[in-house]
Batch of 2 targets.
Target 1
Amino acid sequence: MINRQPVIAVIGAGIAGLEAASQLAALGYKPILIEKAPVVGGHVAEWNRLFPDMTPAEDVLQPLLARTANIRTLLNAEISSINRLKDEYNLLFSDGSSLLCQAVLFATGFHLFDASKKEEYGYGIYDRVITNRDLEQWFNSRQDARVDKPRAVGFVHCVGSRDLKAGNPQCSKVCCITAIKQAIEMKEEFPDAEVYCFYMDLRLFGKKYEDFYIKAQRDCGIHFIRGRVSEVGEAIDGRVVVKAEDTLSGKPVKVTLDLLVLMAGIVCNPDAQHYAREIGVAVDEDGFLKSRNNLAAITDSSRPGVFFAGACTGAKTVPETLAEARSAALAIHHYFNTRK
Amino acid sequence: MDFGFKLSPSSAVNLDQVDRRRYDRLVQLVPDASTCIGCGSCSATCTAAPWTGMSVRKVLLGLQRGQDAEVDRMLSACMLCGKCTMVCPRGINTRQLILTLCRLDKNGEVVR
């Protein structure tokens, strides 16, 4: 006999949480979406267009919102702690309320690396240095005094990624392709601008990503310089001077730019780490939540009744996140199906 | 005046001042030239490379870094055997690229 009435708490109403909740509802369950922000949609709701087809982020989000419209959703709901009971979990909220549930799905997503920690790049110090998220918000709002008809634009890959000293040895995976997307968009917006990408390696693993790279090279004339930016300074006119080594020619290069965009990497949501530790769910060495098995059971945690979907276990693309959310919903279904 | 020492010229490349007209013209004439990924297949297979340092990869890079003398020196070593064209993973017609480049002067004008 399948228990169709267990309480399933889905923590986080980004695309992972929304997709998982919608699938659970389709399977006959009544999930509860818990979102600490005043709106659902997570990072995708803040994005303008998505690689590699330049799909408006809205097009991904709207169908998800429609499918989750009837699902109970707690907004502005901040979980202060989670207690593990015998085979249940009790979520305590900052307003004093609580929720007893039989399964917890972490769809807690990621945080963008705080680019100001890499002080040598000057984020928060120089006006003309912004992040990938700032640029994406400019694409949405067209309001940011720092983006002022730039004639030379640079993108710095791997800001807070593959950086042991910054505490993030892992690759954030989506920034290479995001940089290329944003570089193409800037070139389309400002056709006369010179656009430079400073990279260590270009990791264009996904479907159509390499085509996107060739488009950036051939159709947009974007300059790719293999070398990590070592330092950024401000010129007397407020523009920024970027220094790097062009490792392909073995020579130091410098260039003066009107706008420098830092591709801030992906780190685990610290709230998720906190909740995981409270209920004895393993956190991996890279700071992300640890799956029971990285190959065969990526949506299972080390504890029964606790599941993962999306970027809480590592950097993910949108289709990977959605696929994982569906997979997690099915894993939860089997969990209740096989319990006595 | 002799101060008893001299200054070494900087090897740094200032991208603000690099004249890319020859490269830009090449890309107009051979658009695939811009799709080089610097893999080095062309240099590895080059018949002339072991004796001359010829490298299509370095030619393309040199053009974008203002190293014209070095570019012309390498071009003069090419024997046009076409092996680089056969190995290029991006399908760049490197032989045509070299021939086109030899016809362009520093300003990107077709002179030959």
Target 2
Amino acid sequence: MREINTSSSSIKSSFSTRATKSQLPFGIGLFIVLVIFGLFLSTISGNLSLFWLTGISFGFILQKSRFCFTAAMRDPYLTGGTAVTIAVLIALAITSIGFTAIKYGDFIKGLPISGQSYVVPISIATVVGAFMFGIGMVIAGGCASGTLMRVGEGFTMLILALFFFVIGSLWGAHDFEWWNLNFISKGKAVFLPDVFGWFGAIVIQLLVIAILYILVEKWKTRKQNQ
Amino acid sequence: MDIKNNEFYKKWFKSAWTYVVGAVLLSLFQIVTLATTGEPWGVTAVFANWGAWLYRTIGGNVDKWYYFSSTSAQSTLNAGFLKDPASLRNLGIIFGALLATLLASQFKVKKIKSKTQLVAAALGGLLMGYGSRIGLGCNIGAFYSGIASLSLSGWVFGVFLFLGAIVGSKLLVKFFM
């Protein structure tokens, strides 16, 4: 069988079996726009361009790896799929190690510990909020990061979901005073190193993640044998 | 130059990356975020601001709300979208995903096909929005960053996020498929 040299530009288009046109020029064009915008932001403040850069990085990584927290939580139940769940566990483990290192570094230098903004009181509000979020992300087909990612990919359903996400957030902000008064302010924040010490906290956390890893793998085998 | 058949284009930009590669890279950028911004990655806190700005365009005012009462919340609201770092990061996520799709020639507008999808998107969005405010975060902030920050709240959030996802899956199958 004669091989067709598709790299020859004169016959490339007529022998191309690809249905879609190359979007590479648009991609490169967008890249240039994003860089210019980033440079513009840096003239206002370096912090703004930093957030812009990390945002683009997160979006790019999420899209390329199809990483989805919704799928991680939904698939084991719905399809028996566990690949994303395992990946989430790996991400938790690696990030935990990195975060502990930074926080411990602050601690031993006598500095205030960075990044404590998500060490928050545990209360009924946590339970209800997480539960609502879990239902919502599966119904909408995307979590917070997943929704933004899919908006970028062109899913109009998720653009709508994003709009209602914003409305829901405003509604939540409106009711927040009530939740805070009755539940959140009465809850207790638990920073694991305060309970187990720094080394104990990270070791126990990694052990829990490892146990979950094993459980998920066993679930997968069980589902495959059914 | 035939980029389409270049092995590095194909490996880095055309093909999908594995979930594990995603996990490692996301972790890397989470750590970069904590180290450079002083806080972990979060996505949903700003959505309340976006809501407040939208509300302002229709004549509303949130200045008397408890949620926006702190001086930092007020200054963020007054500085506007383009000066809000977290808003720019979320916008970046959208454009980063768009960039990845375009470079792989995979961008395609996927339209809503039924009224059921409309309801699902609206209901799902509302639940996520409300839930993330009272739960003090979402899958990224409360769950991912929370756990990585060695906070028990992250684990509690995770357990109920998972239970909610199970209920959501049942509802999905029953009403929205």
